[in-house]
Design a protein that fits this description.
about 280 residues; alpha/beta; Alpha-Beta Plaits; Rossmann fold; 2 domains; seven-stranded mixed β-sheet; 9 helices; about 35% helix; globular
C-alpha cells in the first residue's frame, strides 16, 4: 500500500467530553476513518477524500444519542509514511509476554509484534485491544489448536498474535479496503502469511472457526451475533470488545439468545471485554 501524498479530509466534531469522542471514534472507524485526535471538546476525524461518504457519516452519528455538529475541511496532501517514521509510537508490553513495537525497534518478550500501521487503527494502546490480547493469552491452547478469525481486524494485531500463538489457520476481515491492505502488510512484516479480506460479517464461513475475535462497535456486534453463532463451531469461543461496561448487559443478553454463554469478563477504564463460548 502506498500512503504517500494522499488527499485527506478533516472532519471536526463538537463533543461533550472524551468519552463521547471515543464512542464516535469506534463508530466512524467502521466507515473508513483511520485516524483521530481529541482536544478541548473537538474530535478531529481523518479520512481519504475519495472514501468520504457524508450520508454514511451522518447516519453513523445518528446512531448515537445527542447532537454532534461538525465541519469538513480539506487537508493539504501529506506524506503519511514520512510522518509515521518521524513520530512512531511507544512500544507496549502485554502481561510481560507480548511486545507491540514500531519497525526497527527491539522487543524483550517471548512474542514480538512489529507494526507499521500508517493510518490504520490499532496499535494495542487502546484498552479494548489490550484486553483482547490478554484474553487471547489466557486461551493460547485453544488458539494454537484452532481456526481463528479476526473480524474488523484493523492493523491485524490480534490476527498476528493468533498466528504467533501457534494457530495455523488464521484470517482477518476489515470493511475498509485501505485498512485491509495495511493489515496484510503488517502480516508479512511479521513473517506470517495468512489472508486479509475486505468485507464484513456476511463473509464469515459457517462452522469454520474455533475462535472469533470482534473488537468493534456494540451496535454492530448485536446486529451480527446471529452470524457469529453460525460461524463459530460448537464449543468454540467468541471474544468481544469495543464497548463500555454499560453495554455488557445488552450484549450478554443478545449473545445468550444466539447460544453463547459468558465465560469471562475484563474491564479497564469503563471499557469491557467478554469471552463467550458457544453451547
Amino acid at each position: 500500500m502506498n500512503m504517500d501524498s494522499q488527499d485527506y479530509l478533516e472532519i471536526a466534531v463538537s463533543v461533550a467530553d472524551e468519552m463521547s469522542a471515543e464512542i464516535i471514534e469506534a463508530v466512524v472507524a467502521e466507515i473508513g476513518f483511520d485516524s483521530f485526535m481529541y482536544e478541548d471538546g473537538v474530535l478531529k476525524c481523518y479520512i481519504q477524500s475519495d472514501l468520504f461518504d457524508e450520508a454514511a457519516f451522518q447516519e453513523s452519528l445518528g446512531m448515537l444519542e445527542g447532537e454532534y455538529p461538525y465541519r469538513v475541511e480539506k487537508m493539504a496532501a501529506v506524506n503519511w509514511n514520512a510522518e509515521w517514521e518521524q513520530s512512531g509510537f511507544t512500544p507496549i508490553v502485554v502481561d510481560g509476554e507480548v511486545t507491540i513495537h514500531p519497525f526497527g525497534t527491539e522487543a524483550q518478550t517471548p512474542i514480538s509484534i512489529v507494526l507499521k500501521p500508517e493510518m490504520a487503527f490499532g496499535t494495542g494502546h487502546h484498552n479494548t485491544t489490550y484486553m483482547m490480547m490478554q484474553t487471547m493469552l489466557s486461551l493460547r491452547d485453544v488458539i494454537a489448536d484452532g481456526s481463528v478469525m479476526d473480524l474488523g481486524c484493523g492493523t491485524a494485531i490480534l490476527a498476528i498474535l493468533a498466528a504467533k500463538l501457534g494457530s495455523k489457520d488464521v484470517c482477518g476481515i476489515d470493511i475498509d479496503a485501505v485498512a485491509a491492505r495495511s493489515a496484510y502488510d503488517n502480516v508479512r512484516l511479521n513473517g506470517e502469511d495468512f489472508p486479509v479480506l475486505c468485507g464484513d460479517a456476511s463473509d464469515l464461513k459457517a462452522g469454520a472457526y474455533d475462535v472469533l475475535l470482534a473488537n468493534i462497535h456494540r451496535n454492530i456486534i448485536i446486529a451480527d451475533l446471529h452470524r457469529y453463532a453460525t460461524a463459530v463451531r460448537k464449543g468454540g469461543w467468541l471474544l468481544l470488545s469495543g464497548f463500555y461496561e454499560s453495554d455488557v448487559a445488552d450484549i450478554e443478553a443478545a449473545a445468550a439468545q444466539n447460544g453463547f454463554i459468558l465465560e469471562g469478563r475484563r474491564s479497564s477504564e469503563e471499557w469491557a471485554c467478554l469471552a463467550l463460548r458457544r453451547g
